[in-house]
Amino acid sequence: MHIRGDQAQLVVGGRLDVRSAADARTVLHSAVDDGAGDLVLDLSELDSWDATGLGVIMGAHRRAGRCGRRLVLRHVPPQMQRLLVATRLHRILAIEGGIGVESLHRA
Predict the structure, then answer these.
(1) At residue 107, does pLDDT exceed 50?
(2) Cα distances (Å, whole numbers) of residue 57 to 32, 79, 102, 106, 107
């Protein structure tokens, strides 16, 4: 897993799973705490995430809210969009461009 960027935008790549969760949490929390305005997570390079990785995203979302910020997901891969829909988290998280729920059911 790799994360690069600053307090306004981070690109997350590789696998966000139980093995990388602690490191990802540290980077995301620092970015939330040290910045202002929206924090955009670009997921275009993310290969996969598991329940632990999704928990890290939700934790960063909650932390951003407490800091008066908003966590925005950008370029969410289709398979991860399906997971967000299945867990109904697409209703809670800010997702740039939204999720085309209709197209996910056909895939």
Answers:
(1) no
(2) 12, 16, 24, 26, 24
